[in-house]
Request: fold
Amino acid sequence: MNLLEIEYLKTYFFTEAGVVKAVDDVTLSVEKGSTVGLVGESGSGKSVTAQSVLRIVPRPGKIIGGKVLFNGEDLLLKKEEEMRKYRGKKISLIFQDPTSSLNPLFTIGSQLADIVIEHEKVKKDEAMERVVKALRIVKLPDPEHAIYQYPHQFSGGMKQRICIARALLLNPELLFADEPTTNLDVTIQAQIIALLKDLQKELGMTLVMITHDMGIVAEMCKNVVVLYAGNVMESGSIEDIFERPHPYTEALLKAVPRLDETRKLISIPGNIPNLIDPPSGCRFHPRCQYAIDLCKERKPPLEEVGNSHFISCHRWRELQGGRS
Amino acid sequence: MGLAKYIIRRTIYMVPLIIGISLVSFLVMYAAGDPIQLATAGNPSITEAQRQFLREYYGLNDPIPIQYLRWLDHFIHGDFGKSLYGGRPVNEIISSLIWETAKLQIISILLAFFISIPAGVYSAVKQRSAADYTVSSIAIFGISVPVFWFGIVLILIFSYHLGWLPSAGAHGAPYLWPVFGIKNEFLDELAHLVLPVTVLTFANLAYNVRLLRAGMLEVLRQDYIMAARASGIPERKVLYKYALKNAITPLLTLLGLSIGGMLAGAPVTETVFSWPGLGRAYVTASLRLDFPLIMGITMIITIMILIANLITDLVYAWVDPRVTID
Reply:
């Protein structure tokens, strides 16, 4: 069963320069208990998708269409106060930069306990105990002492552990991790990834890993959704995506540096398009080495081409034929 | 502990500062002219010998360093000397006026501070809405409009045309101002406060609102605000607890400066409303070169500002754990 189903989600930013179509007709589903990778370059709409699910898109962003079905209920139809009860309780979000996502002026204990209090109407002492428990789960040393400290007294890796504890406080069913290791040292990255993997296994949580790191995807995820310029290019199992990729995914995979290969690192030519005036047809066509006139004229539909493997490309079938 | 040590050290640092400021004020004041000449210039019957006698009497003939040391000696003993006009002790003049000024200023500063919080937060949250433009326009109006003009307009409307409120002074005694027909000293005092407090609050409010709005706009963009929302913290708490505490520091600086400078803060308002305060006395003393009174008020203001700065720094450390005092 799918815990989360997003259908034709559109989130636009109404800026003075024009309407930025950051998320445009995004459709994806997340199976309960699975780990799904949400992959794409910066500006592809990964974070905005997660923010849209929680309905915390910052101004001037606005969700203007689509459905977000969580356990079959459309979150976009909920009243604000009802929606608030989902945030942090049923769906949580871990941010990219642990330093900026913790409030510098409040102790760890007080800012985390507040979340428990707002959702469960418990006394402060009890909330603090819950915080200590969550900090212990993420293996923060000396949690009884840590709750009286401020964010600046911790290292980046420890802060990210605290952020993970904050997201897990109320045992959410769904956890979005928005590039949780991008701002950390490489050694700390590995620790955080291992921690997320363990927690996911232990708690049976559903995890959506937002990343541009194909290595993390390969290591953690069963399914992958590839976004480009606010559109879903491809979604499917990790095998499908590595073996029979969409032209964009293929380019993305070639752009991953590897130690065991001597080939030159291939970057994708061009830049991510301006989303105020996105390219016609397939949004990837200006940078795609396989593009033909049709790609410029018509947007390819997201079609199921294999068992739960969805592709939005006019030429994919033809290219597969050529390849095999 | 560290805190007590810090306060003691800061207090010791104040001593050379106070002496330096007093020395500079003293010299500048003496460069401004001769108070005896100024006071007697319009009097044709006074003779040069009488002037000399007055200068001798007030010790103005001694070398300036001697005069300064004499002043300093008295100051250390808590004595500001006597006014050149009327001979009243400066200590007495200041203590009779300080309360009236403080009352006016503290009420206005605090009113402006507490009104600016919801106004600043609201206009930041509703950035570029009609409400934001309204608040911002009022704030700009408050910054731009001269205090004397606004004061006189209020007097014209509410005192002269409507006759609702008194236009001058801090007290009506012995003729108490009737408030809804009731005459008592408290209501009389309140009625006298309304117009000058309005003028001062308005002037202070403008800066407060602009500062808080700018601070809130900056803070609301931060990840920790989105994180608080993502954790299901209600919006009111996100704004007034988590965002406000981060945005309020510039406002605290301004509050510290206003409280510190409040005794000198409103000479114009006090003059417009004939308020028996220190600001007006300061202006009068300066025009008359009433040396002891000028020095007395200057020193009171200096000490107030230094104390307010110290308190502001302590409040900073209390609000922001990243600020350490030592």
In short: Chain B has a mean pLDDT of 88.
